[in-house]
TrEMBL record:
InterPro entries: Centrosome-WD_assoc (IPR052778), WD40/YVTN_repeat-like_dom_sf (IPR015943). Coiled coil: none annotated. This is WD40 domain-containing protein. SUPFAM superfamilies: Tricorn protease domain 2. One of its GO terms (cellular component) is MWP complex. GO terms for biological process: microtubule anchoring at mitotic spindle pole body. It comes from Colletotrichum chrysophilum.
């Protein structure tokens, strides 16, 4: 937890109710704080980026006591984030875009292994490419073999982690031509009273990705650059600031574009399922997108629309909706959608025979959190049980959980 104004970074031990406080975390805002710390896979060591006297400091903290075990000044002027590789062998950092292209690869004890200083120029007009703005987004694949690096151009560089060299560059073009290997889906907004307001049509002709809206009296949020690998590390979904309402899905093994999803609203989040491959959820910003979630996979007939707000009383949202995949052991993928007052579980399965978390709980009387059988109460509990229920107000029973299948 980060305190106000970024004065300290606190780590709470829920078993002992104690906290360890670390001063001067570099990032403390909700949108930037996750880039300033990372837990090492397997061991649980905490890597934290702080800044003191105008210099970046990386510290490695013990997984239990959170005491400092190692710290050093990285070779950065203004580092913008750090992350571990999935095997925990490398700590990756990236420099501010104002300092050019620079991604650094450190060992867990702070030794610099490699430095990537940007792609080599591919075209004559790119001879001064190294003088441009640098890294904007740095995303490691789940298998740790590759890193997607987005800058301020319309390209995404894919690095091989071990040699720290660029293996491919994914070029995003404004005009997209449908092929047998490339499917293009365009969102169509209709009348909600007549059925689904958001449907998708497969394009059969060349499509131009919509650009950023300029001018006007309505203040819009800045566009985001996103790059996310799927669970198999073979697909990469990207969204660029130049085309904020378009999602590009790339096949990393063949270095080819596989799908383009064109929306009317700006893309706010792209999230692949944590374990099931090639299953993507998309959320957008703008009028008419509150409570809407879109899911896509390569075998589907276009993105599917999930209207969370329509399942609520009076179809009214309380605050901003949040979406996440539920990581459970069942076969069907499950989305957890909610606002500040309601929560909804949505099964992606089209068959009623596939299991769902709430079905497992009802069938075996197991809780979804612990798996303990709560039906067999301790005999001592019955000794204190009062059978007189006359003092209880049972005029209205509140159903804590309400599960619906969409």
């Amino acid at each position: 937890m980060c305190s106000s104004f970024g004065l300290k970074f606190s780590v709470f031990d829920l078993t002992t109710s104690r906290a360890v406080e670390i001063g001067s975390p570099k990032f403390h805002q909700p949108t930037s704080a996750p880039r300033g710390f990372a837990l090492r896979p397997g061991s649980g060591h905490l890597a934290l980026l702080t800044r003191v006297s105008g210099k970046d400091i990386v510290s490695i903290h013990h997984p239990t006591t959170r005491g400092v075990q190692r710290s050093w000044h990285p070779e950065t002027v203004d580092a913008q984030g750090l992350t571990w590789t999935p095997d925990g062998r490398r700590l990756i950092m990236w420099e501010s875009a104002a300092q050019g292209h620079k991604v650094l690869f450190y060992t867990a004890d702070g030794h610099l292994l490699n430095t990537w200083s940007g792609p080599s120029a591919f075209e004559p007009e790119e001879k001064h490419f190294d003088l441009g703005a640098g890294v904007k987004v740095c995303q490691v694949s789940p298998d740790g073999a590759r890193i997607a690096v987005c800058d301020h151009t319309r390209n995404v560089c894919i690095l091989d982690t071990k040699p720290a060299t660029a293996s491919m560059r994914l070029e995003h073009s404004a005009a997209i031509v449908p092929k047998n290997t490339v499917q293009i889906w365009q969102e169509q907004i209709g009348d909600a009273q007549l059925g689904s307001a958001h449907t998708f049509v497969k394009a059969t002709q060349s499509v131009s990705a919509p650009g950023r809206v300029s001018g006007g009296s309505v203040e819009t949020k800045p566009s985001r650059t996103l790059a996310v690998f799927d669970a198999s590390s073979t697909l990469l979904a990207t969204a660029l600031e130049d085309w904020p309402s378009t999602v590009w899905v790339w096949d990393i093994l063949s270095s080819e574009l596989r799908a383009v999803l064109v929306f009317h609203g700006s893309i706010s989040a792209l999230t692949w399922h944590p374990t099931q491959r090639e299953l993507l959820s998309i959320t957008c910003e703008g009028d008419g997108y509150d409570g809407l979630v879109f899911t896509w996979d390569p075998l589907s007939d276009g993105p599917k629309t999930i209207d969370f707000a329509a399942q609520l009383p009076d179809a009214k949202l309380f605050g901003k909706s949040q979406v996440s995949w539920l990581n459970w052991a069942g076969d069907s993928a499950v989305l957890l959608i909610g606002d500040t007052k309601h929560r909804l579980m949505v099964s992606m399965s089209e068959s009623d025979t596939c299991g769902a978390p709430w079905q497992d709980a009802q069938r075996s009387d197991l809780t979804m959190t612990t798996g303990k059988d709560e039906t067999q109460l301790d005999p001592t509990a019955f000794a204190e049980f009062d059978e007189d229920l006359s003092n209880l107000d049972m005029s209205e029973v509140d159903d804590t959980f309400a599960f619906k299948k969409i």
